[in-house]
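Minutes, project huddle
Topic: does the predicted pose make sense with guanosine-5'-diphosphate bound?
PN asked that the exact inputs be recorded in the minutes so nobody has to dig through chat later. Recorded below.
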Amino acid sequence: MSSAVIASECKRRRTFAIISHPDAGKSTMTEALALHTRMISEAGAVHGKGGRRATVSDWMEMEKARGISISSTALQLRYAATGDPDDFPHVINLVDTPGHSDFSEDTYRVLTAVDAAVMMIDAAKGLEPQTLKLFQVCRHRGIPVITVINKWDRPGQAPLELIDEITERIGLIPTPLYIPVGIAGDFRGLLDRRTGDYIRFTRTAGGAKIAPEETMTADAAAAREGDAWTAALEESELLAELGQDHDQEMFLAGQTSPMLFTSAMLNFGVRQLLDSIIEYAPEPKGRKAIDNVEREVTDPFSAVVFKVQAGMDTSHRDRLAFMRIVSGEFERGMVVTHAQTGKPFATKYAQAVFGRDRSTVDTAYPGDVVGLVNAMALAPGDTLFIDPKVQYPPIPSFAPEHFSALRVTTADKYKQFRKAIDQLDAEGVVQVLRNDVRGDASPVLAAVGPMQFEVVTARMKAEFNVDTVIEPLGYSLARRTDEQSADELARQRGVEVFTRSDGAVLALFSDKWRLQFIEKEFADLTLEPLVAAAD
Ligand code: GDP
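Predicted holo structure (tokens), as shared on screen:
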């Protein structure tokens, strides 16, 4: 495949994730984006909330029971600014971050697969805890962020208040691309700050269709909207005086964030969001390998596995590994090499998944997400390539904050239990810790979010038919230590020492006061912080 073709495929691709606190409107916006584009394929499970769309994922009972999606979705959308569905100069990969209120390592892994993030904020609520955490992860990984103030059709804060809050609390300077005309709760349209025009929206019944829009000159807008237009104009001028206009370099450097105002429910501002993603979000780029050499997008095929998912669907009890293509062209059937083992990996079963229906992916390019079926050997962070060899840096494992003992309750299932725990460990579902005192039969699980534990017990039952119970332990933080320090630490009250399956020696502490006390008392012990969730 010629590198010119790959370069042009990259040029028209954008790969991003929507990040938000639950209920800010991520699912509604995902549907709105799908409505404004043409869906090509969907890799992963789709979930529906609020009855607007049927739930097509039946991955796990737990998922159904809680009305949440633990599984990640990668939607591929075709989009043309002209609105002509047969003309699709752009391909958009929307990678879904887990939509539950819990925080897990999955979220971080998904964010390693995207080039930009859209941060959705509820106009009435402003910044919420999850928004802050997710934003810090984006900053940590250098992911540029587009900010969307959603639910503008409902009463909320003033635009300048929201802008101040974001600037002050996360140190990111919003540069609105559009200013809403009409206060929150009276969403009439948008002032396009680049053209100075007014885009007026018309509601459709239930927001089920693309909202018709009409573009007017500033004079016509002033005549029609009166004070609402004047207010928007003044806000725009004030922001210009403050220097809060879009600057592509500052956006890519993570200093500023283009901002939009939307109503995902009414489909207002959705086209503007799509256009902004196309215009400003970066196209797929090459990546640095562990030897520090950059693999360019036009180099031979390479990809990173960022998520492994099992038993998504009862009619397809298998394991899917999702990879993001970094370089080259992917053709189904080609045999690639698994960098971690050096073994060949056949890609005959490359698929895009739409609930129960799976479609085959024949070709894919950098930025695309492809699901590989029955990829038993693959784990998150692994590299696949076509010669020459490349291996990308591993996805860091984050500092766990929740610790539980896992115990099997059916005595004769010990062998399956061990097999299951090794499998879940390899997939990166949780971190598995062991020590001699507890023995192999009751490992300790360490997680970033407690829902990871529920996933373990549910999968133990569903896939291995092993009943287990989770017993929360009274530890809340971990430090990396070494063999020399381990004995002294193990003697301390409120401390326990473990070996993680990757060989790391970890000391768990009941709380930070206990840790501080021991650090003071035994200054020569090795106690290093792990990579924190949002360093
Ligand atoms: P998620 O948890 O971020 O995926 O949020 P959802 O998309 O499920 O939305 C949460 C709730 O807010 C649902 O009841 C939606 O109908 C509602 N919602 C989402 N977007 C809007 C919006 O733009 N305006 C209004 N009024 N409601 C919205």
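Observations noted during the meeting:
- The first strand starts at residue 13 and ends at 20.
- Residues 43-72 have pLDDT under 50 and may be disordered.
No decisions taken; revisit at the next huddle.
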